[in-house]
């Protein structure tokens, strides 16, 4: 009888273990779940309105244009000092360390330099030879992040525009110019990886768009170059995905659309791989207006990315558009709280590989509430807010 009881017990246990084993072996590989990842897009703000020299010299030629350029650059550069990136960087570092994104796509990572003033007839006006560093936004921010105890490392740095021009008060042709020097602005897009993240970098790359804004300012050539960078990452042996960071043209929606097409034909082309894009897109999906020099509306680049491009605007899967405003702050970034963010151009898009999904499980707009504003200087971290989303795959 005892033997019979053991036999029945063996049958029952075998049946139970068999039932438990079936689901484990029946889970398809495509249903594998990777660890959640937090990604962020953050425009640091160059520090001043760089359209000022363009507007100041419009319709002028010769010496008059040169004087207007120098005076406009002097004011622009003074506003860069006023908007105080070393202090704003501390605010940004606090914001980033609180959100703790694994990956951050940074735009407008400026490098401001200066050198001797080069006038027409002496030296080479506009030559890129100013080397004295005033503000290196990347170095300053990385140092401040280390001080918060949440360090990051730059995994891809892509240089975009690099322009140099005279800066002075008065008129050098009448001997009344003071504070003369050349000022140089180099703009970079950067991807940061949190040092403590478990993400493993598999590959990376970057490039500049062929479509670019080319101008002549006071007889000096000025190209506003935009570009992108990307990194392929994975958690251990988990499924890899590509994170792309880009900044589309602000002055022309025609050019921004052309750049979006280049992006989706280049680093974001592979539909067999999950791709996430962090973007200062300069394209508001709710804005159908057309700029005087353009043929397509402001929303056209966004609609191309989310239409033919096949990408989903992840914020809209998490919260309504009006809870995600990211842009609209004044040039001196010292508005009283609450700030005047009134539209959304900073996006995180995703397009999953076949059989995969990307869903938002947490998200926030950063740097947009009164706690982000510096009580001592009255400055906000940037003229944009950031967007951080935690996604599960």
Chain-wise SSE layout:
Layout: H1 2-26, E1 37-43, H2 52-57, H3 62-82, H4 85-99, E2 103-115, E3 132-136, H5 137-148, E4 152-169, E5 178-194, E6 199-208, E7 213-217, E8 220-224, E9 227-235, E10 241-247, H6 253-265, E11 275-280, H7 300-306, E12 312-313, E13 346-351, E14 359-366, E15 386-392
Parallel strand pairs: 1-2, 10-11
Antiparallel strand pairs: 1-15, 2-3, 2-5, 4-5, 6-9, 7-8, 9-10, 11-13, 12-13, 14-15
CATH superfamily: Endonuclease/exonuclease/phosphatase
Distance between the termini: 54 Å
Q: Per CATH, what is the topology?
A: Deoxyribonuclease I, Chain A
The outline comes out as globular
Taken in chain order, the helices and strands follow as: HEHHHEEHEEEEEEEHEHEEEE
Number of helices: 7
Kindly estimate the percentage of residues that lie in beta strands according to DSSP: 25-35%
Low-confidence stretches: 1-31
> Which architecture per CATH?
4-Layer Sandwich
Mean pLDDT across all amino acids: 91
Number of domains: 1
Major beta sheet summary: 7 strands, mixed
Describe the protein in words.
The structure is a single chain. The chain is of the alpha+beta class and 393 residues long. It has a single domain, classed as Deoxyribonuclease I, Chain A (4-Layer Sandwich). It is 25% helix and 32% strand. It has helices spanning 2-26, 52-57, 62-82, 85-99, 137-148, 253-265, 300-306; strands at residues 37-43, 103-115, 132-136, 152-169, 178-194, 199-208, 213-217, 220-224, 227-235, 241-247, 275-280, 312-313, 346-351, 359-366, 386-392. The strands form three sheets. Strands 1, 2, 3, 4, 5, 14 and 15 form a seven-stranded mixed β-sheet that branches. The protein has a six-stranded mixed β-sheet with strand order 6-9-10-11-13-12, with no helix packed on it. A two-stranded antiparallel sheet has the order 7-8. A hairpin with an 8-residue loop joins β4 (152-169) and β5 (178-194). α4 crosses α5 (137-148) and α6 (253-265) runs parallel beside α7 (300-306). It is globular, with a radius of gyration of 26 Å. The termini are far apart. 44% of the residues are buried.
């Amino acid at each position: 009888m005892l033997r019979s009881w053991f036999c029945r017990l063996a049958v029952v246990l075998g049946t139970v273990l068999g039932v438990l084993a079936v689901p484990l072996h029946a889970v398809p590989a495509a249903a594998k779940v990777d660890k959640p990842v937090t990604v962020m897009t953050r425009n640091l703000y160059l520090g001043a309105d760089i359209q000022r020299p363009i507007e100041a010299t419009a319709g002028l030629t010769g010496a008059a244009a040169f004087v207007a350029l120098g005076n406009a650059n002097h004011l622009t550069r003074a506003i860069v000092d006023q908007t105080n990136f070393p202090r704003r960087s501390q605010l940004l570092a606090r914001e980033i360390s609180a959100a703790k994104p694994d990956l951050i796509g940074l735009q407008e990572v400026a490098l401001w330099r200066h050198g001797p003033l080069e006038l027409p007839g002496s030296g080479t006006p506009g030559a890129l030879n100013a080397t004295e560093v005033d503000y290196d936004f990347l170095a300053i921010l990385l140092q401040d992040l280390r001080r918060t105890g949440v360090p990051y490392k730059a995994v891809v740095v892509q240089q975009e525009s690099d322009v140099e021009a005279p800066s002075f008060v008065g008129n050098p042709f009448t001997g009344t110019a003071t504070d003369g020097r050349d000022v140089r602005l180099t703009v970079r897009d950067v991807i940061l990886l949190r040092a403590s993240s478990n993400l493993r970098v598999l590959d990376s790359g970057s490039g500049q768009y062929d479509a670019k804004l080319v101008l002549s300012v006071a007889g000096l050539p000025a190209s506003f170059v935009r570009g992108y960078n990307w990194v392929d990452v994975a958690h251990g042996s988990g499924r890899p995905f590509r994170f792309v960071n880009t900044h589309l043209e602000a002055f022309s929606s025609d050019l921004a659309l052309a750049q979006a097409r280049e992006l989706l034909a280049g680093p974001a082309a592979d539909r067999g791989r999950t791709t996430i894009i962090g973007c200062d897109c300069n394209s508001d999906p709710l804005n159908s207006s057309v700029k005087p020099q353009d043929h397509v509306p402001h929303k056209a680049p966004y609609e191309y990315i989310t239409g033919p491009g096949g990408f989903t605007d992840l914020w809209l899967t998490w919260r309504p558009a009006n809870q995600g405003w990211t842009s609209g702050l004044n040039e001196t970034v010292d508005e009283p709280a609450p700030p005047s963010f009134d539209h959304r151009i900073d996006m995180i898009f995703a397009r999953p590989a076949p059989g995969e999904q990307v869903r938002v499980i947490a998200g926030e707009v950063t740097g947009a509430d009164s706690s982000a504003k510096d009580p001592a200087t009255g400055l906000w971290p940037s003229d944009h807010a950031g967007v951080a989303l935690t996604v599960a795959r």
